[in-house]
Amino acid sequence: MSPPLKLAVLISGNGSNLQSIIDAIKSARLNAEIKAVISNNRHAFGLVRATQHGLHTWVLEHEDYKDRKQFDDVLRHYLEAIDPDYIVLAGFMRILGADFIRAFENRILNIHPSLLPAYKGLDTHQRVLDNHEKEHGVSIHLVTAKLDDGPVILQASYPIKPGDDAEKLQQRGHRLEHRMYPQVLSWLSSGDLSIKDGRLYYEQIPLEKPIPFDA
Ligand code: GRF
Q1: 39 Cα to the center of ligand 1, angstroms
Q2: What pTM was estimated for this model as a whole?
Q3: From the CA of 90, how far away is ligand 1's center (Å)?
Q4: Alpha helices for 96-206 (secondary structure H)
Q5: In which domain, by residue range, is 179 found?
Q6: Residues 6+ apart with CB under 8 A from 173
Q7: 48, 77, 98, 111: most buried by Cβ count inside 10 Å?
Q8: pLDDT for 8-62, tens place per residue?
Q9: What's the CATH number where 65 sits?
């Protein structure tokens, strides 16, 4: 078996996606090792989850740094020392600068609660409801310098039902998310999925469109 995929997971809040990755590793569904859990919010519950599982945690909050660049530089130095195979953004609510992203090109993943490229940014659940959309979804994508941009790897969609509110959509999305991140990471770990020069390959064949998640 190939060596475990080295991950750094960046969070800001609840950390339920982090938990799904921890659970997948513990149950041997995912051959990976979380080298560090990093949060830009010292109150993030995800830090408690990480500590409970004996993971190394680190907090860096923006008010301790003079500007965005200094924050990014400190984070970059820390990550360079860990040298993870992938940086997993799992509810990390801070925009990373282009220099940072360039330093880890092809190695940063994000999970976003919408059918990208639709509904980039925040409050996706309320916005799809306000626009009377018929469906909504979750996307896992490679991070590029543009917000919520970058090629989508795996995408799940689900119908919006009468009576749905933002909370119900969030819960439905989360149930999918918790299966999707471990899936993508396990493809990376096995080599089924690879990323080169900003392009995705599944079983060595260029991925022209997102893989539909089979819910
Ligand atoms: C998820 O809904 C994810 O799509 C978004 O932030 C949320 C994080 O949730 N990027 P959690 O902290 O993993 O529970």
Answers
A1: 13
A2: 0.97
A3: 6
A4: 98-103, 124-130, 166-190
A5: 5-212
A6: 113, 125, 136, 137, 138, 158
A7: 111
A8: 999 999 999 999 999 999 999 999 999 999 999 999 999 999 999 999 999 999 9
A9: 3.40.50.170
